[in-house]
């Protein structure tokens, strides 16, 4: 955030245009979202207190969330879940990124892999759960496979679409300036693809968290056992707190990847997954 | 000259495509005959699919039953998602305020709400419908928003200059410009709705479809189980193709 310090020095010079511009940027990035989230939170609280009987007020949910942290339940669930998530996601990235790049760059590879990848992409992984549990049992292998299957095809196909979009004119320019075939890959296609890799990784992370939750709900493990337990005793406040934590986990990982992207591939941002 | 080259190129790609599928099926078949494995052979899966989906029709009826909730939830998602996306696409301030919340909800694992739905709605069709709704609605909001926001403001101004009222500006200029993006959203939403339907069958309460998937796998009838998975994939593909075809028909009659 270099330009965060910039307005201060410019403001000292009394340069008004420079100070108003970052102010609106600040409005866009901080105040408006704050207002948006705040208004939704208020609406939730009021609806729960005044109108909808079964809905737990947000304040109770947040209190339950604090309790979840204090009792350590949250960390137990996180400690159990994160390794599965990391393994499955890592595997999905290790397979999906090379495959997506290959399919995007080479029409031969695309023709070979397109039908199986697209078929698996449209297959509901949830419908495979009963079968996967029968084959793998409830061990770590089951979760890793579920997370992997949830994420890998989204990573592959997002990346393929992105790489295909890389402007042909860029490649031509590279050729005109005398780049070799390898040089075009190294200096044109790879940097131009990197933002798409970032977008694919973000989307993949979101999908991986969904896979983890689906797997754990099916086996009543980790967050799944928490949620099922709260359901049994009607503790909707704690259950909603867990849902908020899972949402934060998903957004947090995607946001962290976004920050990495701004650091290492700042030349072009591709929307997708979480903006 | 370039025509014939494009033709042979396309023919080569079709050949590669067919060859890869045939090779995979053969490898799958060879693996299941050579190794002692739980995995069913593709022939057994196809036979089971024909038996349960076509001949006896148990699978077909189970999916048709589940589709009722899916269709309701999807219709609700379209009715809510398109107007919301329109509002967010039209107003920059609204988008600045609510985009982060929409993105967070889009990224959130909706299935985690299933245990809560059991508390709130009980084991009712309403719970399934709401779950499908939440599965489908966010992708519809986001794509509609993008389409509306990318509308050419010049066209909007031009319409206004020529005296177009709000009906024409929103119903014609914005809608027509955003339509391709909205249709993408509706198509993706249909796919999401089918996934939501499966999740509802497995995580809320099992109708015939959920029972089919669970029972066949629990008794290690792998071919039957995979036939169910296959039927659901096809259902998703058909649902998405149907929405796309309806969209194309609507676009053509509208212009």
From TrEMBL, chain A:
InterPro entries: MetI-like, MetI-like_sf. It is a multi-pass membrane protein. It comes from the Archaea. Residues 1-22 are annotated as: Disordered. Residues 78-255 form the ABC transmembrane type-1 domain. Keywords: Cell membrane, Membrane, Transmembrane, Transmembrane helix, Transport. GO terms for cellular component: plasma membrane. Belongs to the binding-protein-dependent transport system permease family. PANTHER family: ALIPHATIC SULFONATES TRANSPORT PERMEASE PROTEIN SSUC-RELATED (PTHR30151:SF38), ALKANE SULFONATE ABC TRANSPORTER-RELATED, MEMBRANE SUBUNIT (PTHR30151). This is ABC transporter permease. It comes from Halarchaeum nitratireducens.
Automatic annotation (TrEMBL), chain B:
Residues 63-247 form the ABC transmembrane type-1 domain. It comes from the Archaea. It is a multi-pass membrane protein. InterPro entries: MetI-like, MetI-like_sf. One of its GO terms (biological process) is transmembrane transport. The chain crosses the membrane at residues 14-31, 37-55, 67-89, 104-123, 130-148, 226-247. It is found in: Cell membrane. The keyword Zinc does not apply. GO terms for cellular component: plasma membrane. Gene3D superfamilies: MetI-like. Its main location: membrane. It holds the Pfam family BPD_transp_1. This is ABC transmembrane type-1 domain-containing protein. The lineage of its organism: Archaea, Methanobacteriati, Methanobacteriota, Stenosarchaea group, Halobacteria.
